[in-house]
């Protein structure tokens, strides 16, 4: 567990090494104001304040750190420093920490469940903005929660473990949890049951629901896809495609982390968190291509691909979310490879028919340096979901517009009068960047939280 609160401390004038932040453009003017010794050291080290570089300048009280950054306003500006400086306490020279604190904290994130981390000591940053310190720590911890859950091997994280995670979260915040499994799941949530029935003895499927907040407050629902491992089912994936499928519960990880932020902040909402969780396994009990599945909504779905299972379990969960008439539903899901082909790993597509919600999410994404890109819920592609024998198919033939048709499938389970947004997140970083190591990661989490705060904050 990463204790981020220890790494960001109130500035009470305690001894600390100074950190000066420069851009490459501003470096020459700064250098002319320095001593001959500092200029000589910079020349000898070929330091020019390029992004993610730093220079250590010895002085009588220790060292001064000169840091090169691309954008001083970026949350990641200090992340490389946090990864590489000696253990100690640091203070920004002539500036407040601000958004930089997030990268400082997450630059020291380590996933140590399966091996010991390096013993390198803490790099502590001082902040004068004590009012926002707890908020930054909460956001860093929520990001780390997503990373930890996604990085955990599927052998150690199945539907039961996701239930434990939800119950622990509820206990910390005074929420209630209900779980539907077994015969009740088969009766009331038939698509969740169908996807998970191949693993029903070892890793039984379930719908996890958490309720929190005053029933008089605006009702919102957060839904997360919880496929703890995805073989593809009988439409089995090749080994290379299965390699990272421990991350197929990344939507659930995002939903749990966002729900935790909502409750920890005390937003005046009535929160309903829903995690449909399964393992899409292969056995004699697997659901089959060509099966016609019944749904909680009463529609029928011709299953054309057992590897398009995430939208099935989300369909039942979205139906349940809509039954309580929320004014807003957000869902997170590692849903389609088509989204990655279109936008790559770092840019989650956003789908919504609600223009106000789209504007709020896009503005929050820009403000938080947590980008999303809006893709259309194109009505003209809705006919691709037609079936000859059922109300719809789950995966159209041909593969065209795969992220859009998946979102259109989900839309059929959302009440038309409810504002709804779907985020198709990757939940994985294929290569590392400062503060963002290779492995599980949160995408659009900060944007969604900022949007919710903007809509529902008491202030």
TrEMBL record:
Coiled coil: none
Alphabetically ordered keywords of this record: Aminopeptidase, Hydrolase, Manganese, Protease
Organism in which the protein naturally occurs: Sphingomonas pseudosanguinis
One GO MF term attached to the UniProt entry: metalloaminopeptidase activity
Protein's recorded name: Leucyl aminopeptidase
Residue ranges occupied by any Cytosol aminopeptidase domain in the UniProt entry: 305-312
Pfam name, any one: Peptidase_M17_N_1
Database matches in PROSITE patterns: CYTOSOL_AP
EC number(s) stated in the UniProt entry for this protein: 3.4.11.1
Cellular component, GO, one term: cytoplasm
Family: Belongs to the peptidase M17 family.
Lineage: Bacteria, Pseudomonadati, Pseudomonadota, Alphaproteobacteria, Sphingomonadales
Listed CDD domains: Peptidase_M17
Gene Ontology process terms (BP): proteolysis
